[in-house]
Design brief:
Radius of gyration: 26 Å
Family: Belongs to the inorganic phosphate transporter (PiT) (TC 2.A.20) family.
Protein name: Phosphate transporter
Organism: Roseibium suaedae
Number of domains: 1
Number of helices: 16
Largest sheet: 2 strands, antiparallel
Helix content: over 70%
Shape: globular
Pfam family, one: PHO4
Membrane topology: Multi-pass membrane protein
Strand content: under 5%
Distance between the termini: 85 Å
Length: 498
């Protein structure tokens, strides 16, 4: 029988197969950057087409490209805080989260994103100090570019950071480079710095408080389902009322002017109506379920999905301004040759921000979603529900007290708060021990002693490495963005401020 096996030919064919696999993997990795680059180019083309015949066309086109890049980075980094807990708790899949977040981010940006923004972001720089149109344009472009670059780097290292703080740092650095330290309103900068501590601390405390309530009044009750039928409708009502007030204050304030009292009153009415509706629904859903924790998780899954959608809507309504605010200011200044305190945002500019956030989320968001939802600490629907609820309630409390907060820091701080509370509760709760003893679970009485510090660290419920990385990124966001913006200003000023 003839042997047709050719060792040399087989080796060559294997090498070709490996090369094809490598080429396929490389091409798949290049799809997301390619689509992102195409979006940036299309944004610049649209800006050029709408600005034909207008002065400052080159500046408008360049600013549109930078604004699109900024919007992509906001979507890649910041949106993870809204849907990450829901994905990490397996209340919904990554694909479902991406679709829901993209739809509601775009809707929030387009419906309630606002038609008027301040050209000097957050009042960081005195407008009189950069009244020259060329200097102002260079400063805004430097601020926008530096913020986008820093957020891109933070996404690459896996750290969710505040896009608002990034743009604030960028504006501050460009303002100092353009007009000196006296141009910066340091009182505003100080209040923003205070939010580094206030936001995550508030978010963590509120989330831990709700988790403590759920554990003590539902999880460690003998009849879990009876406790759930009593308290889950109350928690749903609190969530509905909180998100109504949150959206009224943060999302719809650009459309209808609503004060804190009116928002809270509207939230109370919606919360009461939600409680009336939720009671029979929860009772019907709990029928036939077993008296165990897995059944409780099913009762929290739908409210958690709703909270992710609402958070995405509010985020799109607010943070789209971080991308399109400076862009709109540059476009307005280029067209009119003058600097004013407020500008109207053209529809194409708002569309660049809304679509850019959605594209950034879909193309690059899964990594940060996984970080927030699964890698910091383990989440289930009940814990993730506490994180989402904390984001809405903390913003309302902070607004009532006049405290500046970051939604990014609140959400991540809430995840940390849930994890640290679980560590404490597991080790110290007398109620948990009594419940486990009633269930005759002897495992809690015979815990294997830990042999060394490394093993103790591995068994912590919050991963310390991620904690330190994220906190470090938060601390350096404003100064890094400021320094980078100042450098970029000095590079751009000779071409734009002359």
């Amino acid at each position: 029988m003839t042997n047709y096996k050719k060792p040399t030919l087989d080796k060559d064919l294997d090498k070709l197969g490996y090369m094809e696999d490598a080429a396929g993997n490389l091409s798949r990795r290049l799809v997301a950057p390619g689509v992102a680059l195409l979006f940036i180019v299309l944004s610049a083309v649209i800006a050029g087409a709408t600005g034909i015949g207008q002065p400052g066309l080159f500046v408008t086109v360049a600013a549109a490209a930078i604004g699109a890049y900024m919007a992509l980075n906001i979507g890649a980094n910041d949106v993870a805080n809204n849907v990450g807990p829901a994905v990490g708790s397996r209340a919904m899949t990554m694909t479902t989260a991406l679709v829901i977040a993209a739809i509601f981010e775009s809707a929030g940006a387009l419906v309630a994103g606002g038609d008027v923004v301040s050209t000097i972001s957050k009042g960081i720089v005195d407008p009189a100090s950069v009244a020259n149109p060329g200097i102002f344009t260079a400063a805004m472009m430097a601020a926008l570019m530096s913020s986008a670059l820093w957020i891109n780097l933070a996404t690459w290292i896996g750290a969710p950071v505040s896009t608002t703080h990034s743009i604030v740092g960028g504006v501050m650095g460009a303002g100092i480079a353009a007009a000196g330290f006296a141009s910066v309103q340091w009182g505003t900068v100080g209040s923003i710095a205070a939010s580094w501590v206030i936001s995550p601390l508030f978010g963590g405390i509120v989330a831990a408080a709700f988790l403590a309530f759920i554990k003590n009044f539902i999880v460690y009750q003998d009849d879990k389902l009876a406790a759930a039928r009593r308290w889950v409708p109350v928690l749903i009502a609190v969530m509905a009322g909180s998100f109504t007030a949150y959206l009224a204050m943060k999302g719809l304030s650009k459309v209808i002017k609503i004060g804190l009292g009116e928002a809270c009153g509207l939230g109370f009415v919606v919360g009461l109506g939600s409680w009336i509706v939720a009671r029979p629904l929860v009772a019907r859903q709990s029928r036939g379920l077993e008296n165990r924790n897995q059944s409780l998780r099913k009762l929290f899954a739908l409210p958690l999905i709703c909270s992710a959608a609402l958070l995405s809507f509010a985020h799109g309504a607010n943070d789209v301004a971080n991308a399109v605010g400076p862009l709109a200011a540059i476009v307005h200044t280029a067209e009119l040759g003058d600097v004013v305190d407020q500008v109207s945002i053209p529809l194409w500019v708002m569309a660049v921000g809304a679509l850019g956030i959605s594209f950034g989320l879909v193309l690059f968001g899964p990594r940060l979603i996984d970080m927030v939802g699964a890698q910091i600490t383990k989440l289930n629907p009940m814990r993730a529900f506490c994180v989402a609820l904390s984001a809405a309630i903390t913003v309302i409390i902070a607004s009532a007290l006049g405290l500046p907060v970051s939604s990014t820091h609140i959400a991540v701080g809430a995840v940390f708060g849930v994890g640290f509370y679980r560590e404490w509760y597991t080790e110290n709760s007398a109620r948990r021990m009594a419940y486990m003893e009633r269930k005759h679970d002897t495992k809690v009485k015979k815990v294997r002693p830990l042999k060394n510090r490394e093993e103790q660290t591995r068994r912590k419920l919050v991963r310390r490495a991620h904690f330190m990385t994220i906190v470090a990124a938060w601390v350096v966001t404003v100064p890094v963005a400021a320094v980078l913006s100042a450098v970029l200003y000095f590079l751009l000023a000779p071409f734009l401020a002359g």
